[in-house]
Amino acid sequence: METKVLTTLEEIKVYSDPYRLQILNAFYKLDRAATVKEVADELGEVPAKVHYHVKKLEKIGLVQIVSTKEINGIMAKYYLPFSGTIEIKRKDTNNEPSANEMMRSETYKLLSELYEQNKERFFKQVKSTDKPYASMINDTLYMSDEEARYFFQEISQMSEKYKSKKRGEEYRAYEFFATNIRKDSDS
């Protein structure tokens, strides 16, 4: 599985934008190469607004053009989102406190937005039906840093075979969100 590593403040700012996260989710939901217009329709937005943000995502490699097609004299570009793991690794900023603080702030903003969007989807599902199916795990696991990286990699690899849409009434879409946080103490 491919990994995209975001190392600059600009890359993290592009990725942490709440609207861009919604655009990426729309691409994943469509589960195929899609045009900006199709994503805009999925979001109920105007294509020009979506196009601006897709170009930002394309610049840092989180979406890419996979084909083009002429439709009524207009060249339609079909994009796919990055399908691997996205990691954030801060570059050494020569101990510049302001740069370090900005990176920390943008990383926090990104994680907060990811949590918020997933929390909203979770509660929406729980409220939407008399018999919702939603589950959550909150455990403390004990392992070395290497084991923790491997564990998270295994989860990510295990989920790959379920990411493509399958057809048939026995298949349902399930949202999956996981974090891996090292505790420095048992508090």
Side-by-side strand order of the widest sheet: 1-4
Shape: globular
The percentage helix is: 40-55%
Question: Tally the helices: what do you get?
Answer: 6
Task: State Rg.
Answer: 19 Å
Could you give the count of β-strands? 4
Question: How would you explain this protein's 3D organization?
Answer:
- The chain is α+β, with helices and mostly antiparallel strands.
- It contains 6 helices and 4 strands.
- The chain has helices at 9-16, 18-30, 36-43, 47-59, 97-128, 145-160, and strands at residues 3-6, 63-71, 74-81, 85-88.
- The strands form 2 sheets. The chain has a two-stranded parallel sheet. The chain has a two-stranded antiparallel ribbon with strand order 2-3.
- Strand 2 and strand 3 (74-81) form a beta hairpin.
- Helix 1 packs parallel to helix 5 (97-128) and helix 2 crosses helix 3.
- The longest helix is centred in the middle third of the chain and has 32 residues, at 97-128.
- The chain is globular.
- 12% of the residues are buried.
Q: Which keywords apply here?
A:
187 residues; alpha+beta; two-stranded parallel sheet; two-stranded antiparallel ribbon; 6 helices; 4 strands; 48% helix; 13% strand; globular
Provide a quick synopsis of the model.
This protein has 187 residues and is of the alpha+beta class. The protein has 6 helices and 4 strands; from the N terminus they run βααααβββαα.
Topology:
Blueprint: E1 3-6, H1 9-16, H2 18-30, H3 36-43, H4 47-59, E2 63-71, E3 74-81, E4 85-88, H5 97-128, H6 145-160
Parallel strand pairs: 1-4
Antiparallel strand pairs: 2-3
